[in-house]
Design brief:
Bound molecules: FE2/S2 (inorganic) cluster
Shape: globular
Mean pLDDT: 86
CATH superfamily of the largest domain: Glutaredoxin
CATH architecture of the largest domain: 3-Layer(aba) Sandwich
Helix content: 40-55%
Radius of gyration: 16 Å
Strand order of the largest sheet: 2-3-1-4-5
Length: 178
Amino acid sequence: MSNRAPAESPARGSASAAIADNRQKLLEATMRRHQYRPDALIEVLHKAQELYGHLSPRLLASIAHSLHLPPSRVYGVATFYHFFSLAPQGEHTCTVCLGTACYVKGALEILAALEAETGLKAGHTSPDGRLSLLTARCLGACGIAPAVVLDGVVIGHADAETLRARLHALLAEAPVTS
Ligand code: FES
């Protein structure tokens, strides 16, 4: 029987499809490492949130299926702990990888520059809902460290100045209205 979790829909373009695949593989590897044991739920949820930014109903259902847990239990745990987010992030998301490979290549300096540019602390969304500044511990793109994911698109060999400019330009665009 396959325990493979379905991938989240990629946000946009082939680059985001590639990272979505990597995220799915990394989540699957985490569950496999724990032999799909139900008591690994919190660690798996942590990994899922790191990879996807928030825990969507679809993602929770897929984790419940893989760990052979009732969806109500998975949902209950995800809502109990404040560090899990079920809500989508801001209109734009910028995730700075702080995993080892990215850390040694200056990820902390990039994060500090983006915090200064946006006035946001990592893990927070701007009051107007336009931007979430997030961190992850590894995005599966260590070969192009430091890596940052901006709106689902992986930016390898990232540098603070380029990212600041890109964020500045993104936020200068008109907000998306639904
Ligand atoms: S440590 Fe950043 S992508 Fe792996």
